[in-house]
Amino acid sequence: MIGAAITREVATGITKVKLATKKRVAGQPIYEFRLNLGKLGSARLAFAVERDRGTVYFISSHLQKAIFSHEFGRLVTEIVRS
Known about the structure:
The chain is α+β, with helices and mostly antiparallel strands.
């Protein structure tokens, strides 16, 4: 479901997504959006797209943008350091 949603967003010009952080990972911007996962509920995820390949960096059940951004901010700092 996540792969299909990212593919759909890329095909439509990434109109429903926002930047997850101002930092870049491997030179790529990181985007985020909320996704309904059916019976599993909703999730917010952070991902990057390079050419035709998407990389999901973070999935959270915390839907509030502020909480998600705080959680992801700690993680992306570690990713960028590596």
